[in-house]
Amino acid sequence: MRALKQHQGVVAPMDRSNVDTDMIIPKQFLKSIKRTGFGPNLFDELRYMDEGKPDQDCSTRPINPDFVLNQDRYKNASVLLARRNFGCGSSREHAPWALEDFGFRVIVAPSFADIFYNNCFKNGLLPIVLPEDVVGQLFREVEQSEGYQLAVDLEARTVTTPSGETFTFEVDDFRRHCLLNGLDDIGVTLEDAEVIRSYEESRRRTAPWLFGAGS
Amino acid sequence: MAGKTLYDKLWDDHLVKQRDDGSALIYIDRQLLHEVTSPQAFEGLRLAGRKPWRIDANIATPDHNVPTTDRDRGVEGIVDPVSRIQVETLDKNCDEFGILEFKIKDQRQGIVHVIGPEQGATLPGMSIVCGDSHTSTHGAFGCLAHGIGTSEVEHVLATQCLVQQKMKNMLVKVNGKLDPGVTGKDVVLAIIGKIGTAGGTGYAIEFGGEAIQGLSMEGRMTICNMSIEAGARVGMVAVDDTTIDYVRNRPFGPKGDQWDAAVNYWRTLHSDSDATFDKVVELDGSEIQPQVSWGTSPEMVVGIDGRVPDPEQEADPIKREGIVRALKYMGLQPNMAITDIKLDRVFIGSCTNSRIEDLREAAAVVKGRKVSPILKQAMVVPGSGLVKAQAEQEGLDKIFIEAGLEWRDPGCSMCLAMNADKLGQGEHCASTSNRNFEGRQGFGGRTHLVSPAMAAAAAVTGHFVDVRELTN
């Protein structure tokens, strides 16, 4: 996984609440057996005027000029500013894969859905929760200033605006540690293989019916 | 010391290691696998040269992509080549790693959240994961069950553990008795309408109270299934006689002496009387009406006697904007009666409502009636091959077919339209599924979430109607 320590980038505003994972990456693209290549279909139904199909050349499709990511000023955005309950719905990790593949590294919102939030950290994508009034302020600033960027420091847990205003955010230590160092958390867990084995042996004794195949 | 909640007990029973940084390793007793969220996990194992930690903890089946017709042809019957590759990939991965799979032609194939309980592969007290957010379904058995992403599917395959932070405890108590004609689906939609789609975020929800205790396992599964639509990854119901009776004699369940030992343990799986919850929400079950969703989020729901809301009446600007957007997408006018919404299709199925009891409830409504000529299609998709066989043994298939509904083969089908079953642009569908998001059931499709009985009533009238008017 790609590490993320600090990041500065152009902010794109996604001004609607309850953005669900079907919206982030519609189901027809979940048929891929790969982890990559979802970027062109990020927000497919909002971004294009036609119905997208897997393995299609998206460069010739009719685009929706009103959609935020189709506007020139946001085309190189790497920070997504969003409203409450971002990423609700299904557990599809294709949603963070698509955001990451498009070029996003950071998402700022007042709240995230649990599974999506967790999936982001597995893919070098940092979801940041800031209070609703702060997010509202950032939406106004992005609107007013073309090329608006935010600077994020995961080590310090801070987000800094172009005017130098700094907000701190919370993130749990384990996820932060893995993302800062780009760690494979399976490797970290397997360091405890003996502890897992010993738990498993005791469970086998107390609940033997949980082991062995069915009839 | 205060007593423990059911969630506290399940957490403690599965805690392998509490780390200093606040995270914990939780042991996973069962992983269910399907074709959509597993290929990258198996590929990850291969690339890292890892083997599954405990093969017998895993059970797989294809469900999202499978067609609901022409199933005699097996994988060859999947017309879409991309879908076919995904199902073939699951077969190959399970064969390579030695994982038990109910393949497309196996009668035990079905939606993962239907086959787990049906096989007794879901048992009280288990921790269960699946790369699917509706894994919360299994919490109906007093399990710790939640949906995970593909990286975590790989993590569980490789380590039999999941890295977790403990969630907060919420009790949703539904008091009183439900009216006949009001089902688990109506209860959970009413709960989501009350607490919102983010109301349960960060919580494990236990559903309790007289109305929940009075429900069958099917009804409880429907409620736990949609916990995620209230934002909660985990939903649970305490174990009681209803639970134990359901689990008895299932193929994967304990036998002989082990059965007695298991039951003794399962009887402890309830919140202690002095347990405290971080949040408690109460509803009066006797006041819950049959529910219909009108918008593009499951919280956008009203009783059958209700009306489509007027955004002008909403004080919160973000919610108001959401209502305006939803009305535009759904092609509805503020203040119109729910019963005036015209329908194009009816879908009875999905991991929320495709079990035998759901089909019985729908069949009871359509029996002796005909599907409205206004509709383009009404279809019934059983949750598994065994549900299908049971329904046919009871003659439900004949009731549906005589009424003009299509009787299909098992799978996720039009709940998320990854196979050929989907809505056309602008079409309204009365659906027993779980999500009414934009485009969920097909590009431009408009979903209204209802119970199986309400979907059946809509099928024979062509619009929404209080099912109690047809059955009383």
TrEMBL record, chain A:
InterPro entries: 3-IsopropMal_deHydase_ssu, Aconitase/3IPM_dehydase_swvl, AconitaseA/IPMdHydase_ssu_swvl, IPMI_Swivel, LeuD
Pathway(s): Amino-acid biosynthesis; L-leucine biosynthesis; L-leucine from 3-methyl-2-oxobutanoate: step 2/4
One Gene Ontology term, aspect cellular component: 3-isopropylmalate dehydratase complex
The Aconitase A/isopropylmalate dehydratase small subunit swivel domain, residue ranges: 1-132
Keyword Ribosomal protein among record annotations: no
Any Pfam family matching the protein: Aconitase_C
MF GO annotations: 3-isopropylmalate dehydratase activity
Keyword annotations from UniProtKB, A to Z: Amino-acid biosynthesis, Branched-chain amino acid biosynthesis, Leucine biosynthesis, Lyase
UniProt GO BP: L-leucine biosynthetic process
EC number, as in UniProt: 4.2.1.33
Catalytic activity, as annotated: (2R,3S)-3-isopropylmalate = (2S)-2-isopropylmalate
Task performed by this protein: Catalyzes the isomerization between 2-isopropylmalate and 3-isopropylmalate, via the formation of 2-isopropylmaleate.
UniProt record similarity statement: Belongs to the LeuD family. LeuD type 1 subfamily.
Subunit details: Heterodimer of LeuC and LeuD.
UniProt protein name: 3-isopropylmalate dehydratase small subunit
Organism for this UniProt entry: Marinobacter maroccanus
Organism phylogeny: Bacteria, Pseudomonadati, Pseudomonadota, Gammaproteobacteria, Pseudomonadales
TrEMBL record, chain B:
Enzyme class at the top of the EC tree: lyase
One Pfam family recorded for the sequence: Aconitase
Enzyme nomenclature, EC number: 4.2.1.33
Cofactor note: Binds 1 [4Fe-4S] cluster per subunit.
Example GO BP: L-leucine biosynthetic process
Aconitase/3-isopropylmalate dehydratase large subunit alpha/beta/alpha domain segment(s): 8-462
Keyword Ribonucleoprotein: no
Source species, domain of life: Bacteria
Cofactor(s) it depends on: [4Fe-4S] cluster
Binding positions ([4Fe-4S] cluster): C351, C412, C415
Pathway(s): Amino-acid biosynthesis; L-leucine biosynthesis; L-leucine from 3-methyl-2-oxobutanoate: step 2/4
PANTHER family: 3-ISOPROPYLMALATE DEHYDRATASE, HOMOACONITASE, MITOCHONDRIAL-RELATED
UniProt subunit comment: Heterodimer of LeuC and LeuD.
General function of this protein: Catalyzes the isomerization between 2-isopropylmalate and 3-isopropylmalate, via the formation of 2-isopropylmaleate.
Family assignment from sequence similarity: Belongs to the aconitase/IPM isomerase family. LeuC type 1 subfamily.
Protein's recorded name: 3-isopropylmalate dehydratase large subunit
Organism field: Marinobacter maroccanus
Lineage: Bacteria, Pseudomonadati, Pseudomonadota, Gammaproteobacteria, Pseudomonadales
